[in-house]
Amino acid sequence: MSVIAANLAAIQERIRAACERVGGDPETVHLVAVSKTVTADRIRKAVTAGATILGENYIQEARRKMEQLEGLSIRWHFIGHLQSNKAKLAVESFDCVHTLDRESLAQALNREALKQGKRLPVLIQVNVGEEQSKSGVPPEQVAAFCRSVVTLEGLEVRGLMALPPYRDDPEQVRPYFRQVAQLLERLRQSAPHPEELTELSMGMSHDFEAAIEEGATLVRVGTALFGERMVASRT
Asked: 3-226: what fold?
């Protein structure tokens, strides 16, 4: 067994254990393998071992890998900051965008989805820590933003995504995870199609277990799977 395969097995076991601690179903939690800067050969090992969703931060880097890994059964999720002028490529290339954070981007993605005859699943990024250095919709504006986006025929709002402030101790991040989960529940109560609001993308290598215990359905894990990240070109 390769190191990557062993890491994946360990992560899957940690996901299962976290679900069991709160009486959850491990089948409802999915690993997004964060493959930013990871070579196609190493990604292939992860996919061969059972990874099915890859999370990429940069459009051009991701498209190169898509060509190299063509033929593998992979769902590609975009998890980085997305420029509106890259909307066409994002809609062409990705199965889900986690980082919808502004009206102009929603409109751009919607236009391209309609042109391409698609309905693109998206998550609304919440700036739960209200940090100036991070993108995302302020928590108090999420409901209004969601009401606007659900009217766009080319987009399908599936839930929320959050990148809380970093803390070494996952217990210090837990309140942020809980806040986002509560926010999603409030959205469900007023949404025209609450059954579509099923996803919470939150938690990374150092804190994904706490995120799962607070309701995460998508956990974005890179370092724990692939090891320390290498520097790579974003273009």
From this structure: TIM Barrel (3.20.20)
